Automatic annotation (TrEMBL):
The keyword Hydrolase applies. This is Phosphoglycolate phosphatase-like HAD superfamily hydrolase. Keywords: Hydrolase. It comes from Kutzneria kofuensis. It comes from the Bacteria. One of its GO terms (molecular function) is phosphoglycolate phosphatase activity. Gene3D superfamilies: HAD superfamily/HAD-like, Putative phosphatase, domain 2. InterPro entries: HAD-like_hydrolase_sf, HAD-like_sf, HAD_sf, PGP-like_dom2. GO terms for cellular component: cytosol. One of its GO terms (biological process) is DNA repair.
């Protein structure tokens, strides 16, 4: 492998617990059925409106989706500034850079909010590119992965995507890259059986090992 594309939320950024807790809080604030950690992990999916429909057990109205988005953002922002990197994120980035390879960051988090977080954690200098969602973009990760690889000029067959969601695996397959899915245990966004038949790692270091 020549290049690693890292996911942000739940992968390099250790915010799995915060994402789950913020969703639980958002559903409570919106007066919708209670969400538990187990339900979150059992129903997690992209895009987020589909995920919320699954948690609610019905198709939510546009107004309900909008209210959940506001409540979630309020709950998440309260937690965001104290969230650390995943325990072996820094050493994994250093090892890959030390091997003379390149890496980039691709997130489904809004770009203007992503950049200050990446800069605060002190890891921006590791990346050839840092891309989040721009101008109201939503949806699946595959088009964004394809765009970043095109802009960087990499042959997808020489690239490893490291993420933590089924959508990451789908994006990798559609774009022709290899992938490893990081499962964070209790704070993972997906139940582990969602990754059945996929390449799973229990640490980011294992993903780097697979690529070296």
């Amino acid at each position: 492998m020549e290049h690693i594309v890292w996911d942000w939320n739940g992968t390099l950024f250790g915010d799995g617990a915060a994402l789950i807790e913020s969703t639980i809080e958002a559903f409570h604030a919106a007066g919708l059925p209670a969400v538990t950690r187990e339900l979150y992990q059992r129903h997690h999916a992209q895009p987020i409106p589909l995920f919320y429909n699954r948690l609610a057990g019905r198709e939510l109205s546009d107004a309900e989706q909008a209210a959940l988005a506001v409540h979630f953002q309020t709950a998440y922002v309260k937690r965001r500034d104290t969230i650390p990197l995943t325990h072996d994120a820094l050493t994994s980035l250093q090892r890959w850079q030390g091997a003379g390879r390149t890496q980039s960051l691709l997130s489904m988090y809004p770009h203007d909010e992503l950049m200050p977080l990446v800069q605060r954690t002190g890891i921006a200098g590791f990346f050839a590119a840092v891309d989040g969602l721009r101008d109201g973009e939503r949806g699946r990760k595959a088009p964004h992965l394809r765009r970043q690889l095109d802009e960087l000029g990499f042959d997808p067959s020489t690239v490893l995507l490291v993420g933590d969601s089924v959508d990451d695996a789908v994006a990798a397959r559609e774009c022709g890259t290899q992938f490893r899915l990081y499962h964070a245990g209790r704070d993972a966004l997906h139940a582990r059986d969602h990754f059945a038949g996929m390449s799973i790692v229990d640490s980011l270091g294992e993903a780097v090992d697979a690529a070296l």
